[in-house]
């Protein structure tokens, strides 16, 4: 989500290196937004006893947040122009508002279950099962790992887009090609929440 700010930073300073100075604050804010959601789930020692209720509650939270994102698609105007000194705070707020941590909760709660015993599985399914089994361990180390991997993937993808727009496409391209992903994001949260509830039942 922060790549437009990276482009703006580069264009304001008229230096390509300014695009990359946004990496640390944007990544740090994004990481903190996920950690604030994931770490409490990692500390749930009584999870096994209440797993069904927690999984249904987490699914409902994701589903309701998706509905909220579909109904309320406005972005706060006060966050439209962010000075470089406040990028980490902006990244934290945007990642929290868009549910970046919530979409990782299913991993923490074990919603990505392994296939039934005796089911025939190919190498890809077995690999996926091994990863999901590891990810479903609800501890602090897993929360940090999930948040770190997600943050790195987000920053790498965002930096790539920002660099291409800054270096080759420019603002004219953004004005013509900009599209709002809030509908897609809201619908995907609703689908993930409904799936989580269905798997918990």
Describe the protein in words.
The chain has 201 residues and is mainly α. It has 9 helices and no strands. The longest helix has 38 residues, at 140-177. It is elongated, with a radius of gyration of 19 Å.
Q: Span from first to last CA?
A: 34 Å
Counted by DSSP, the helix tally is 9
What can be said about the biggest beta sheet? none
The dominant shape is elongated
**H/E series, N to C?**
HHHHHHHHH
Mean pLDDT: 77
Query: Helix fraction?
Result: over 70%
Outline the low-pLDDT stretches: none
Rg, rounded, reads 19 Å
Secondary-structure map with pairings?
Layout: H1 3-13, H2 17-20, H3 23-42, H4 47-71, H5 87-97, H6 105-109, H7 123-135, H8 140-177, H9 182-200
Task: Quickly describe the structure.
The protein is built from nine helices and no strands. The chain has 201 residues and is mainly alpha-helical.
